[in-house]
Design a protein that fits this description.
The complex is a heterodimer of chains A (276) and B (645). With 276 residues, chain A is mainly β. Helices cover 10% and strands 57% of the residues of chain A. Chain A has an eleven-stranded mixed β-barrel with strand order 2-3-4-5-6-7-8-9-10-11-12. In chain B, strand 14 and strand 15 form a beta hairpin. The chains are: A mainly beta (276), B alpha+beta (645).
Chain lengths: 276, 645
């Protein structure tokens, strides 16, 4: 008599075996290279807008729209549009230093493979939630951001299926004022940042590290409600189809941060005393 | 048979008669209210009637304490006990003075209510023999806390024999001790030492020889000093009591170096307490009590001529001092001297006379008043009062602006000679000073006019000077960081004030002068107000800045930032109106517009405080185009009219 536990594992192994066989039948079997293979870096430009629209004492609407361009063979950085990206969420201000958000993303992916015969545009869907913590550090501020995304993507091939993956992102960032003793209007700041993006899901076999992004940004706080920033990002990460191959990129990023508050004056006050 | 009766009748009669006579002499007891001098309380005393007079005889008690005042605030109590012998104090006496407060908490002990008191208690006690202190007398001041002695603040112990202090004595307070001794005749003798109990190094020693103080040795903070005092080879000596007069003499001789003398301080304290006890006794028609310490001093007898001269000096000094005071304090002259070089000259001469002639003469007048001239050599006094020689008859002063020197001397100055070292020279000097001042007053009479109308002006002029001083003070008290352009506005105010005063001083005709003066007074007080407003500007601008700043939470930085709100209004205030006011004050200020400008400034500030909380969208829109100050002022107000309606 086999114990029920043993029979369970048997079932699992059979199932995985069948699935593996099916996958192997569908795709070319990928073989890991002897050593990791780094592809030539791509060059990109991102234009990002970040809106943070206060809709209540503790709630805000997080509205982000990004336009991401990348090189073509003939034009570096801005040869073609890569993605248009719409990220929205409702955020909750837990305290001045802590907030959380939950919302959805719809991203329009353009086919950037110049030789491809497939579809030009496909949508991508995500549900995301994030947890941000800020820490004052001398005149600077440090930020920790944990962002978790549940992501449905499909390839550009006709009638390709959606695959589901989870993304696990952690970002560490500092904002250091350069011409002031603290971050306030008329201040230029420098912001080094590092973000690690891991992924999981059935399709992720040997490529859990999707992206590692190292960025330095220079920003200018124009008013308490408007900030501009620009920076350069280097990133690398494993290709999904084979973890032995690493893509790389250099990205120029331009940001506008705005935080309007359309509430009536009497509701606004006292707007910093969150716990009153 | 009659014989035996007569035999015992006589003694009976005799004894009855003597009983009756002695009854007339018998003590009675009084119990009731009594006031002696400033002390009014409840008395119990025994007395006899002698020649229809009440004569104290037997025990005496006068006391006062008031529970009610003690509970309310503080009670000054006293208690005097002692005894008399036919009107003469005889036997043990005690004088108590107390000042107590209470914390108003009471407790019941057995059958008594008790309250604890804190304060000061003074006790003087000893024996009086035939009205004179005899034996050991002590005077103690205790500091009382919660009905217990916390600290002894003062204690003097002196032994007397028939009113004359004997042997050694000791006077101490909470930080120092003085010990010394007397000869049998009460003369101070040998070394009197003072030392601080907490700083043993600080000492002061007086060395007496048969009552003559020969030298004083002091040591303080490690510096020792020895001062000779009285000459042991003077032709004559006199014995005088050691009292305030002696201290005045010491201060004169030591040229105020002994002002800090600790020994004098302790002795003065002691003398004060003895006279407090004496005050009680003398009001009881009893001979007083005194410490009776004696000293010897050199004596240079004054003849009647010298005495007269001293009187003359004192009188000359009084007159001259009054004159100089009248001239220097004359408010009209103080104004006139700004424009009139002649007045300024005489004013300065008066200042110089006051300093060089009257200052030393005043000191001498003090000696005369204390009656201590005869204990000093006249030549020594003269040298001490004028260490650099007597001032010259030609009094030189330098004009305030130019370096030009002018000299004043009495027309009859040749008749005066006061270079000598005798009293007559000093008197001549006094006369010269007095006559010079009279001459100056005469010369200034047109400016010091005693006309009645100008008397009225006097009060006005005092006010003008006070206002002008206040303005100057306002300018002097500006902080270093005060903006330069505001400072120039202040300078402009001072210029307007000066010109008003100058115009005032130049007006001769009293009626016109009075009229103009009234206007100048209003002007000066308005300038003062304006100066206050300008001085306040930096503070007010900071207030406005704070008031128009909001704290905004920035979600991207996760911190709170300051944000200026209603920027156009703030900018209109800061960049248009304030510069407009300052420019107007600096360039166009006069007595006519000072008040208007000040009102506008004050009003604008108040208005700015109000506008922060009003709906100002419309105003902000209008301010976008309007940069002309007067129109901006109107706009700020228009809003208020709209709002009020």
């Amino acid at each position: 008599m086999m114990s029920s536990r043993k029979s369970f594992w048997l079932v699992v192994m059979i199932f995985v075996g069948i699935a593996g066989t099916v996958l192997a039948q569908e795709m070319e079997p990928e073989v890991l290279p002897e050593t990791s293979q780094y592809k030539d870096p791509k060059t990109k430009v991102w234009f990002n807008s970040y809106g943070n629209i206060r809709i209540g004492k503790r709630f805000f609407w997080d509205a982000q729209t990004h336009f991401r361009f990348e090189e073509t063979k003939s034009t570096p950085f801005m040869g073609q549009i890569g993605q248009i990206y719409n990220r929205h969420a409702i955020g909750y201000i837990f305290s001045k230093k802590t907030n959380v958000s939950l919302g959805g993303v719809v991203r329009i992916n353009f086919n950037t493979d110049e030789e491809s015969e497939d579809r030009n545009v496909v949508p991508e869907w995500r549900i995301w939630h994030q947890y941000q913590f800020a820490m004052p550090f001398y005149s600077a501020m440090l930020y920790h951001r944990i962002r978790i995304e549940h992501r449905w993507t499909q390839g550009f091939a006709e009638d390709s299926d959606y695959i589901f993956r989870n993304r696990w992102r952690y970002m560490f960032r500092a904002k250091i004022p350069l011409n002031n003793y603290k971050l306030q209007p008329k201040t230029i700041y420098i912001s080094p940042e590092a973000e690690l993006i891991m992924q999981s899901g059935k399709a992720v076999v040997d490529s859990p590290m999707e992206d590692l992004r190292i960025t330095t940004t220079i920003g200018y706080i124009a008013t308490p409600r408007l900030t501009f920033a620009a920076g350069l990002m280097y990133s690398q990460g494993q290709e999904l189809y084979n973890g032995g191959f690493y893509k790389q990129s250099w990205t120029m990023r331009f940001h506008v941060y705005f935080s309007p508050d359309f509430r009536k004056v009497k509701n606004k006050l006292p707007d910093i005393h969150l716990t009153d | 048979m009659t014989q035996p009766i007569q035999k015992w009748l006589f003694p009976l009669f005799f004894s009855l008669t003597s009983l009756a006579m002695s009854y007339g002499q018998q003590r009675k007891t009084f119990e009731g209210p009594l006031q002696i001098g400033p002390y009014s309380g409840k008395a119990t005393y025994q007395f006899i009637i002698s020649d229809l007079d009440t004569v104290f005889d037997g025990d005496f008690l006068l006391q006062k304490s008031n529970l009610e005042t003690l509970m309310e605030n503080e009670d000054a109590s006293f208690r005097f006990t002692g005894s008399f012998d036919e009107g003469v104090a005889n036997g043990p006496w005690q004088f108590q003075f107390g000042e107590y407060k209470t914390n108003s908490q009471s407790q019941v002990v057995d059958y008594q209510y008790r309250v604890l008191v804190s304060g000061q208690q003074e006790i003087g006690e000893g024996v009086l023999k035939d009205g004179n202190p005899d034996g050991d007398w002590t005077y103690t001041i205790n500091q009382i806390k919660d009905s217990e002695v916390e600290k002894i603040l003062f204690k003097s112990s002196i032994s007397f024999e028939n009113g004359i202090p004997q042997q050694s004595f000791q006077i101490e307070n909470d930080s120092s001790v003085l010990v010394g001794r007397f000869l049998r005749n009460g003369l101070a003798h040998d070394e009197w030492s003072f030392y601080a109990t907490d700083v043993v190094e600080d000492t002061e020693n007086w060395f007496f020889e048969d009552g003559l103080l020969q030298r004083i040795q002091t040591e303080s903070n490690g510096v020792s000093q020895e001062l000779p005092v009285f000459d042991a080879s003077a032709p004559n000596y006199q014995t005088i009591p050691l009292n305030d007069r002696y201290f005045a003499l010491l201060r004169a001789i030591l040229n105020n170096d002994s002002g800090k003398s600790q020994i004098i301080h302790l002795l003065e304290q002691n003398i004060g307490y003895y006279s407090k006890m004496d005050g009680v006794l003398s009001h009881l028609n009893a001979p007083g009590i005194a410490a009776n310490m004696k000293v010897r001093v050199p004596f240079y007898a004054l003849d009647s001529l010298q005495k007269n001269t001293l009187e003359q000096i004192a009188a000359e000094y009084q007159t001259a001092a009054a004159l100089s005071n009248a001239i220097l304090k004359n408010s009209h002259l103080n104004i006139v001297k700004r424009t009139d070089p002649e007045a300024l000259f005489f004013y300065q001469v008066t200042e110089k006379i006051s300093e060089e002639f009257l200052g030393p003469l005043g000191t001498l007048a003090g000696y005369i008043e204390h009656d201590i001239v005869q204990f000093q050599e006249i030549s020594t006094i003269s040298g001490r009062l004028w260490p650099n020689g007597k001032p010259e008859k030609e009094i030189r002063v330098t004009g305030e602006t130019g370096g030009e020197q002018r000299t004043f001397s009495l027309p009859s100055s040749e008749e005066f000679g006061y270079e000598g070292n005798d009293l007559l020279s000093v008197a001549a000097l006094g006369t010269y000073a007095r006559m010079s001042l009279e001459y100056i007053r005469g010369s200034l009479s047109s400016r010091l006019t005693n006309e009645e109308q100008l008397q009225i002006l006097n009060g006005l002029e005092e006010e003008l000077i006070a206002l002008n001083n206040a303005l100057e003070q306002q300018m002097d008290s500006l902080p270093e960081t005060f903006p330069v352009r505001y400072k120039s506005a202040m300078t402009s105010m001072k210029r307007v004030a000066d010109s008003a005063l100058t115009t005032y001083a130049s007006i001769e005709e009293p009626n016109a002068k009075l009229e103009y003066g009234q206007g100048a007074k209003t002007c000066l007080s308005q300038l003062n107000k304006l100066a206050v407003s300008v001085a306040e500007l930096p503070k007010q601008q900071e207030e406005i800045r704070k008031k128009y700043t909001d704290a905004v939470w920035n979600p991207f930085m996760a911190n709170v930032m300051e944000e200026e709100v209603k920027k156009r209004i703030v900018s209109a205030y800061k960049d248009v109106l304030i510069p407009y006011f300052i420019t107007a004050i600096t360039q166009e200020l006069d007595c006519n517009n000072a008040s208007t400008l000040n009102d506008q400034m004050e009003h604008t500030y108040q208005r700015m405080l109000e506008l922060r909380d009003l709906d100002t969208k419309k105003l902000e829109r209008k301010l976008r185009r309007e940069k002309r100050p007067k129109e901006v002022l109107q706009l700020l107000d228009q809003q208020s009219t709209a709002k009020n309606q």
